[in-house]
Structure formats: C-alpha cells, structure tokens
C-alpha cells in the first residue's frame, strides 16, 4: 500500500482554490428525488472517487430556498423557482469531498439547460427541462462554503478518513 498518513488522507478544507481535499454542496432537487435518481447521482460521484461526507433529506421552506438562490432574485424565473423548490417535497442535500470537486462536479452535472448538456453528464443523461434539471451543484469554492454552511451544521459534515485515498491520489 502506498504510504499516506491519516493526516494526508483527511486534510481539512480551507476553502482555498487548489486545496487538495476541497468540498462542494450538491442537492438532488424535488424532481430528482421523486424520480428516484438519488442513488444514481451518488453512484456517479462516488465512482469518480469523490467522498460523500454530508447527506440529509430536507423539505426546505421558502426562507431557506430564497437564501440559497439569493443571487438570482432579479431573474424572471426566481419566484417560480423558489415556489417549486419549497413546495414540491424533499430534496437530498449532500456534501462531496475531493480534489477539484467544485469545478469537476459542475462538469459532471452539465450546464443549466439539460438539452445543452453533453451526454454523460447528469443533466444530459437524466433530464430534459431547465426547471426540472434534477440537481444543483455549487458554482465556485466560495459559494460552496456558503452553501455547505447554509444547509449543514458543522457537526453534520463528517471527517472521513477514506481508506481508498491512497489509490485515488498519488
Ligand atoms: P445552475 O443550477 O446551472 O447553476 P442557475 O444558478 O443560473 O443555474 O439557476 C439556478 C436554477 O434555476 C437552475 O438550475 C434552474 O433549475 C433554474 N433556472 C435557471 N434558468 C431558468 C430559466 N430560464 N427558466 C426556468 N428556470 C431556470
């Protein structure tokens, strides 16, 4: 087994670009939960080599959704988006950890419009409509930190020493 210390396997995320074990916030939206795509989505992220360190099913209220999408409040679809996300049943909130997980997580998700997302991406493979695009993923390391803090208490995000790290990172 390659020699990797426990500390190297579990470097705390400092929120700095380039940090080896960074974290991102992802969320299976109500349509993804209803269509039972949660397992498929987690499987894609785990198979890549990213580690699930936070997971919960939440039925968000308008306040939480408004805070989450605060940067979009001037957009024409904002009101409908907040209503949809807060009145359609549960979402699955997740924190994934790993090298490049913020930006590469977005690559794995695809672009906002599923019909413009490449096959092989989550939205490209699993959805059709922009308002039912299955998943959210943080757009940058700073939003990732804010969103993790918004959706999770610190003690709800695990400090996992992943036993496969030495086989994923050199
Ligand atoms: P992304 O989720 O790809 O980061 P945005 O942050 O721009 O995209 O938008 C947040 C969410 O708002 C999108 O995922 C989508 O569900 C919804 N949305 C974006 N644009 C539209 C639109 N033109 N009409 C309806 N819903 C939209």
UniProtKB/TrEMBL annotation:
User: Is the keyword Transferase in the record?
Assistant: yes
In which residues is ATP bound? 29, 77, 106, 112, 123, 133
In its keyword annotation, does this UniProt entry include Kinase?
yes
| EC number(s) on file | 2.7.4.6
What does the record give as the active site? Answer: 136 (pros-phosphohistidine intermediate)
Q: Which UniProt keywords apply?
A: Kinase, Signal, Transferase
**Any one GO molecular function term:** nucleoside diphosphate kinase activity
Which cofactor(s) are needed, names only? Answer: Mg(2+)
Q: Tell me the superkingdom of the source.
A: Eukaryota
Query: Which protein family is named in the record?
Result: Belongs to the NDK family.
Q: What is this protein called?
A: nucleoside-diphosphate kinase
């Amino acid at each position: 087994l390659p020699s990797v210390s426990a500390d190297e396997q579990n470097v705390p995320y400092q929120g700095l670009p380039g940090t080896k074990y960074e974290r991102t916030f992802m969320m299976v939206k109500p349509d993804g939960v209803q269509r039972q795509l949660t397992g498929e989505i987690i499987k894609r992220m785990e198979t890549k080599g990213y580690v699930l360190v936070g997971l919960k099913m939440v039925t968000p209220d308008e306040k939480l959704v408004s805070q989450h999408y605060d940067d979009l409040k001037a957009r024409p679809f904002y009101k409908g988006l907040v209503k949809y996300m807060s009145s359609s049943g549960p979402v699955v909130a997740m924190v994934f950890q790993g090298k490049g997980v913020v930006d590469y997580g977005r690559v794995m998700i695809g672009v906002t419009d599923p019909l413009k997302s490449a096959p092989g991406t989550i939205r490209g493979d699993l959805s059709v409509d922009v308002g039912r695009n299955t998943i959210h993923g943080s757009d940058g390391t700073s939003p990732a930190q804010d969103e993790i803090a918004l959706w999770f208490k610190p003690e709800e995000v695990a400090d996992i020493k992943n036993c496969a790290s030495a086989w994923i990172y050199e």
